[in-house]
Amino acid sequence: MVQIYSQHRPRWTHRLFVPEEADVAPLAKLLQKVLVLRVPNELDGAIALDFYNRPAPPPSTGLQYTDTAKLIRMVKYENRQRKISEVREAGKRLSSCMADVVKSHDWFQTTSLIIAAPGHTRATVSASVRIGHTIAHECELPQEQVLSSREWRKSAKDMTSAELAGLLDEYTVSSDLTGRCVLLVDDVFHTGSTLRGLAAAARRAGATTVLGLVAARTLSL
Questions:
Q1: Using 50, 70 and 90 to split pLDDT, how confident is the model at 14?
Q2: Are strands 35-36 and 181-189 parallel, antiparallel or unpaired?
Q3: Which pLDDT value is given to residue 25?
Q4: For the residues of 208-219, what is the DSSP string, one character each?
Q5: Using one digit for the tens of pLDDT, what is the confidence trace for 138-147?
Q6: Stronger pLDDT, 210 or 26, i.e. the higher one
């Protein structure tokens, strides 16, 4: 066991337990490329491909979009201004990178089905659902639909604390997930409340393990 001196302990945010016989090299290689997210009790673990934004180089004091965020924005916001081929290629690149995480992470390989975050309105198919569908296809996994209790709701980033807490009861999974390992898919991780609400729905349906996978997480200055 490696001793961590007291002056170094505040820098560490995660601790990994690995059985002695396990090969840690593939996991260590993956963790150099992705972000491990701090998650609420409803989830067992979650990973993001990248940050959504990063500090811009001096002399600017603001934030700039990462390459991953640019792909997300092309799929989510700019799909009417872009060529269909460009939007499809952006979605394919995002989905393939996320599918690679599932295929290369031992824990994520135990996933038995995928649930993607629904859109803010029932009338449209969210970018997360489209990405989740492609991941499910690449990983040869079924995709389960989750239902929202409202016809329309705000984006999580625009909700008050009380509204965010209400997301715990927002979603419903009609299928029996008893004993299943479920992978939740979303495009952007803002507060974690959407994943938390989806995880709560999966738990109510009987899931024993709930993991999260997002394309990017936001950064605030």
A1: low
A2: unpaired
A3: 76
A4: SEEEEEEEEE--
A5: 999 999 999 9
A6: 210
> Quick one: three-class SS letters along 41-68?
CCCCEEEEEEECEEECCCCCCCEEECHH
98 burial level (CB within 10 Å; 0-12, 13-18, 19+): buried
What is d(CA 97, CA 40) in angstroms, rounded to the nearest whole number?
A: 25
Give the per-residue pLDDT at 1. Answer: 36
- Closest C-alpha among 161, 165, 221, 174 to residue 202: 174
What's the CA dihedral at 19, 22, 25, 29 to 10 degrees?
Answer: -60
Residue with tokens 């738990």: 203
Are 217 and 37 within 8 A, CB to CB? yes
Residue 4's identity, in one-letter code, is: I
Per residue in 49-86, pLDDT (tens digit) is: 999 999 988 888 889 999 999 999 999 887 778 888 99
CA distances to 52, 80, 123, 161, 212 from 37, rounded to whole Å, are 13, 32, 31, 20, 9
Locate 149 and state its tokens: 């209790």
